[in-house]
């Protein structure tokens, strides 16, 4: 089951240079750290009684797309690209015989991510929480389709 506070804590501690850690040295490293946290979190996703079996295998895809998003020239573009990166990552994940469709909450997530990138004064824990809530919203807006007993939401 996906718990947003778990994602927020991971993002703060492992990606947003929490206390005692250093900032990523490049956008590629930043994208990799982001993907490490998100893919580990998403691997706990469930649809009905079926776990997500492809979250960790698709981590490199997310790292590449997230790195590109983080290299964006503006907060709005970074938010849009990160929302797109996460949507692409979540689409097509396997849950038993079911496969996840595209998140319908992408527009809301993009707006939330852009706001996070625009607020340069926000504390790391606040940034992490807002990013986690946007990512969680994406996951909750995704349906898993397949043979019965599907469709089902991701939880």
Can you give a write-up of this model?
The chain has 155 residues and is of the alpha+beta class. The chain has one domain (4-153). 55% of the residues lie in helices and 9% in strands. It contains six helices and six strands, in the order ααββααββααββ. The chain has helices at residues 4-15, 27-42, 59-70, 75-90, 106-118, 124-140; strands spanning 46-47, 50-51, 94-95, 98-100, 143-145, 152-153. α1 packs across α6 (124-140), α2 (27-42) packs across α3 and α4 runs antiparallel to α5 (106-118). The radius of gyration is 15 Å and the shape is globular. The termini are close together. The mean pLDDT is 95.
State the gist of this model.
The protein has 155 residues and is α+β, with helices and mostly antiparallel strands. Helices cover 55% and strands 9% of the residues.
Helix content: 55-70%
Number of strands: 6
Mean pLDDT: 95
Which stretches are poorly predicted, pLDDT < 50 over at least 5 residues?
none
Task: Kindly list the characteristics that best describe this protein.
alpha+beta; four-stranded antiparallel β-sheet; two-stranded antiparallel sheet; 6 helices
Annotate the secondary structure layout:
Elements: H1 4-15, H2 27-42, E1 46-47, E2 50-51, H3 59-70, H4 75-90, E3 94-95, E4 98-100, H5 106-118, H6 124-140, E5 143-145, E6 152-153
Antiparallel strand pairs: 1-2, 3-4, 4-5, 5-6
